Each structure stands twice: as C-alpha cells, then as structure tokens.
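Please review the protein record below. Let me know how this chain folds according to its tokens.
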Amino acid sequence: MTIGRDRNVVERCFLINLDRREDRLKEWLQQLPDPWPLPEPERFAAIDGRRCATPPQWRAGNGAWGCYRSHCLILEKCLIEGIDSYVVFEDDAGFVEDFAERFQQYADELPADWGLAYLGGQHLFAGKHPPQRVSEHVYRPYNVNRTHAFMVRGRENMKALYRHLHWNDWQQRHHIDHHLGRLTQRRYQALVQGKNIDKESIAVYTPDRWMVGQLPTKSNICGRKWEQTRFFNDAKNADHSDSPFFAVLGPHRSGTSCVAMVMHHLGVHMGNQLSGYEATGGGEAVGLAQLCENAMRFPAVDPVWPDHQLTQKFKSWIVQRKAEANRDKTVAGGKYPHLCRFAEHLHAALGDSLRIISVERDIEASINSLKSRSEKHRGQWFAATDDQCERLQRSLLDYRDRFIADHPDVPVFRIEFAELVTYPEEVIKNLIEFLAIEPSEEEIASAINHVNPDLRKHG
C-alpha cells in the first residue's frame, strides 16, 4: 500500500471491525485503494451488540447499539489522547477507483471551518432540502444518513459532537446516523434557511459525488446483503436532476388516463398507488392527486397555495418517484389534469429534466364528456355545473398550450387521442422512443391491449 502525500488531512485513521468478522477485515484490506491518501488504517475492535445489555430505552436493535457505542469510543479515545482529527471507516466501506484523486480535490476545497466531512453516505430529504453547493467538489448537506466513512476535526467540534451523541433526546428507533443527521440539519437550517437555531451545531460538508460506498457484504445491523457496492444519491444529483420526469398534460376527459395507463403497462413508474375515475384505471398516483386537489380543489381554476410552496411540493413528490424509478431501472411519470395549470411550477422544480406528453383531443368533446360525468354524479366532489366544466377545461388547455409555446426547449411528445385509439401500435411505438425505455414484448402487448376504441364515444 502506497501512502499518498495527503495523509496530513487528518491525524489518525480507524477501521471499525468486529472480532468475529475477520473475513470482513481481510476483504476490506484487500480492496484498499493504492495509493492511499490517508494515515495507515488502525483496526478498532467494534462493540458487539449481541454481547451487550442495551439500555431499556434503546429500541433500534443490538447491532445498531454496537455501532453507536463503537463510534462513541473512538471519539472518546481521541478526546482523551489529544487526537484532534481522524477519519473512521466501517468494514463494509468500498471505494471508487480514483479515490486518491477525488479525495485530494475534496480535501483541497473543504472550508476552513469544517468539523465533520463525509466521504460516503446518503442524502435524506434532498427533494425538499437539496444540498447547497459550496464549491465545485463540496456541498453543505441538510441531513446525511450512514456512518461508513467520515472525518472529524477540531477539539471544540469533537466536544460538540460528543455532547450531541450523549444527549438523551434520541428519537425512538433512531440509529447513530439518524441522530447525527439532526445535528447536521441545524447548521443548514441556520445558514441556508435563515432559521434562529439556538442549539449547538458544527460545520458539516459532503463531496459532490460520494467516493466511498458500501460493499456487497451482509450487514451486521439489518442482515441484508446486496449484489454490488452501493453508492447512494450524490449531492450533485441529490434531486436526480439527470433523470427525466414525464408529465402527462391534458384537460379532464381528454384521454390522459388512457395514456397514463399505457405508460404504466410499459413499465413507467407512475406512482406507488394508482387510482382515478376510469374503470380500467386512471393512472393517477393517489399522492399526486391529493397534492393537486389540496392546492386547487376541483373545479377551481387557480391554486390557494403560493408559487414557492407549489414548486417545493411538486419537487419533493417527484424526486421520490425518480429515486424509486432509478431503483427499478425505469423512468418516472405523473398524470393529473391539474398539472396543466401547474406546468410552470413543474418546470421551476425540475428544470431540464421535465418532459411533456401532451394529449390532444377536441376541447368541445372533452367539455361534453366532463359535463356528462358530472350529470351522472351530482353531489359528488368531482361533479361540476356546465359553466364550471367549460371554464375549467378551457383554463387547463390554455395554461398547457401557453407553457409549451413559452418553453420551446422543453421536449414535448404530442398524442392525438383519436390516433391512439385507432392506431395504438404505431402511437405506442413512438411513445416508447420518446420515453427512451426498452419494455418487454409482454409489456408492449399489455399497453396496446389497454387501449379501447370505444373511448371515442364523445369524439
């Protein structure tokens, strides 16, 4: 192992490893990067949660207790022995190929006030609270999960960290990383959100891209095993800005439900629980529908929430769907008629990752269909008067078309509803190309079979 020139970033390097996991120790040392830009790793015998009696208030499990106590003991050791900085790795920490180079870039740009600097982790609540860019390779996070690789520096910072870890205000079932995340939030809330935080905090930073992930070994805490080294959402892309989101836009009764269900059959992640008016499925995610209705109750034409709140709510919901879609190796989409009214908010939330699927149907046919639905369901929340139906439908259409005209750089795929029900194979083939996905033959057949020519009854 070659020691690089950057070993003085911290004084000591610790590896947490259980005595009964010699296999993990051997594997970890074998995959250590060369050159190695940090001090020589020192094995630290981890506390075995199986052999300890956890306090009665601890509800997070024996493995999590051992992890917490191991990190506390390293911190105590450094405070007692006068060690003013250290880096700690857990024995499932796996490294990127260019670790030394990436570490150097990160270390060179760390602000002078850094007290806790993560090398690997997972950004929590990033959709609502995205990490703030400090420099090209350094970000200020809102909340970081996982403790497999981080650096600590500074006597006062270490004392503050120690006090935080030993406070008795832990939330039930929280692990050490959850509790550390609450400490991280304070500095973000004070500096980024302008809140008056009276509790102690330290400066926490993360790299733009994680350089340490978790190896595909069985977890000592949760018992799960993965197939490859896992790297979680990076600060640079915590909101999955490089992943597209396909918004299906069209007024009520314009064929958007049919298109959304076609996308669902093709494997597009349209939400975790789909609902809607149509008997064959409306393709509407319950969470998205509730968000839209809370903001603008049918048949209103203007929202009751301010623009910034709408943008943030949509971003938060969509970022979660993107993350789920990435996990399932597909793309995310969403459908609800209100989205026509909120197209500008979607664009503000998503930027270049927004894609539009515009479902085109004669507006008179859509208005008549909505009037017919309302007549059948008088007294229901989704019924409206004839005047309300006309006003709402024309408003939604106008907002959608104006947005498309004002944003020529946003990719748009137009679907004539009449063409979809007449030539489903051809339209769906073109839709697949726009989505840039590779559905199976079974998924394509399922999508085609969903299209029902009888849907043209109002057209």
The two ends are 73 Å apart (CA to CA).
